[in-house]
């Protein structure tokens, strides 16, 4: 491929998608620690002093449902490294689309005491995930993030083709300080090479996770660990209100799938009469809760047992995507490494902008709209910070609907503005609403 074309592609992607990549890198670095942050912010919900004996989980679920008659059970989340309590998660029977609710009731497993309740959609943990996974945009945010993953992949590959040759001529880590552009260019090269493997993994998995629905539809792929019961032995009401013995569910799971570390128990409410038991298998590096056991509600017979280790290469590759993207399989040390590398990825976007701005400084300085480097970077940095803070405040106070509406309006409003500006500049020769011609020196 022509070297000039590679340069153009690399510069174009960095210039037009760099801000999004930087934003996703920063929010991704924070989202790595969602469970730890949630435990830190909500110790009254997530911590419980261990005692020799536990109360009945079945009784706890029944009591919670009795005190929330307008809700139905979605799942029970069991204790794990960052959660000492039972998290009984409910859905409203009559949901309000303008005020989405996913209700969580935290119960001390040793005393049966309800420690607190919350709407998960108003938690800071949910905000951290949603701002990264879908930019808090309700319609196509996840797909936009997937496209940003493709852009990062293109940027990483073209960057390697461009800067890989330079590293053969220049000692790795030798940063020249001739001027700001040269210094940033050297930092850009060396950070890019250092984070090369990480960026490739994040780009590929991010593109897959963001565009997963469309890619699966394109190849006719179904969810590998799913199970649909053809006959429905219950009505919806019977299935929803069916009384379960959760101690027996756990005992059956220990017998039928002893390697499964149970995270969630999720009964059906659509008439299938199935209990999904979700969890992990020690030693696996796959997506959390992707191993499953499907039990019959009536007699606890096994309908399907799904252990990823027993599946083919294709299904194993399917379940490493999210795990590799969020560094879920290596504990806190791997998350810290991911965090450092993610910050490095955001620096690549920043340094790329600085290189471009310094290279075009002379030409830009002749225009009335010229803004020096430092205040320009401060504007973009402050704008990004203000956006994150405002969405965080709205999210934790109002849930999904209000911030999603504002972000959706803002994102597509900004796109429309850019299109109008480009058309205006192309055919009129002046920036819209500026009253100033770009051709004027």
Automatic annotation (TrEMBL):
Pfam families: PepSY (PF03413), PepSY_TM (PF03929). The chain crosses the membrane at residues 12-33, 144-166, 187-211, 335-357, 377-394, 400-420. The keyword Transmembrane helix applies. InterPro entries: PepSY, PepSY-ass_TM. It comes from the Bacteria. Keywords: Membrane, Transmembrane, Transmembrane helix. Residues 56-117 form the PepSY domain. This is Membrane protein. It comes from Echinicola rosea.
């Amino acid at each position: 491929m022509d070297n000039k074309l590679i340069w153009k592609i690399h510069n174009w992607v960095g210039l037009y998608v760099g801000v999004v990549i930087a934003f996703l890198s920063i929010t991704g670095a924070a989202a790595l620690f969602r469970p730890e942050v949630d435990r830190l912010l909500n110790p009254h919900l997530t911590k419980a002093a261990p005692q020799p004996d536990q109360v009945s989980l079945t009784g706890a679920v029944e009591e919670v449902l009795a005190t929330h008659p307008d809700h139905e059970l979605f799942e029970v989340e069991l204790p794990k490294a960052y959660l000492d309590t039972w998290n009984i998660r409910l859905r409203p029977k009559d949901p309000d689309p303008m005020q989405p609710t996913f209700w969580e009731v935290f119960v001390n497993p040793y005393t049966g005491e309800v420690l607190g309740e919350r709407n998960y959609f108003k938690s800071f943990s949910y905000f951290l995930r949603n701002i990264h996974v879908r930019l808090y945009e309700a319609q196509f945010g996840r797909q936009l993030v997937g496209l940003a993953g493709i852009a990062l992949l293109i940027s990483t590959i073209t960057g390697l083709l461009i800067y890989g040759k330079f590293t053969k001529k220049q000692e790795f880590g030798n940063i020249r300080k001739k001027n700001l552009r040269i210094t940033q260019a050297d930092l850009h090269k060396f950070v890019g090479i250092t984070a090369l493997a990480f960026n490739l993994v994040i780009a590929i998995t991010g593109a897959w996770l963001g565009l997963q629905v469309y890619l699966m539809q394109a190849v006719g792929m179904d969810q590998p660990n799913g199970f649909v019961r053809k006959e429905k032995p219950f009505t919806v009401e019977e299935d929803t209100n069916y009384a379960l013995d959760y101690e027996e569910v756990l005992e059956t799971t220990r017998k039928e799938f002893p390697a499964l570390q149970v995270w969630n128990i999720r009964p059906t409410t659509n008439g299938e009469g199935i209990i999904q038991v979700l969890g992990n298998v020690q030693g696996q590096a796959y997506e959390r809760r992707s191993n499953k056991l499907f039990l019959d509600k009536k007699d606890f017979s096994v309908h399907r047992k799904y252990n990823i280790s027993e599946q083919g290469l294709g299904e194993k590759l399917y379940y490493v995507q999210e795990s590799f993207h969020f560094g879920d399989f290596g504990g806190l040390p791997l998350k810290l490494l991911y965090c450092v590398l993610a910050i490095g990825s955001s620096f690549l976007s920043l340094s790329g902008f600085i290189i471009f701005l310094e290279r075009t400084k002379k030409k830009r300085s002749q225009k009335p709209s010229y803004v020096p480097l430092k205040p320009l970077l401060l504007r973009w940095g402050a704008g990004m910070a203000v956006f994150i803070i405002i969405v965080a405040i709205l999210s934790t106070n109002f849930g999904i609907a209000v911030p999603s509406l504002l972000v959706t309006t803002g994102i597509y409003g900004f796109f429309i503005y850019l299109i109008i500006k480009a058309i205006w500049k192309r055919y009129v020769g002046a920036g819209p609403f500026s009253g100033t011609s770009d051709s004027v020196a």
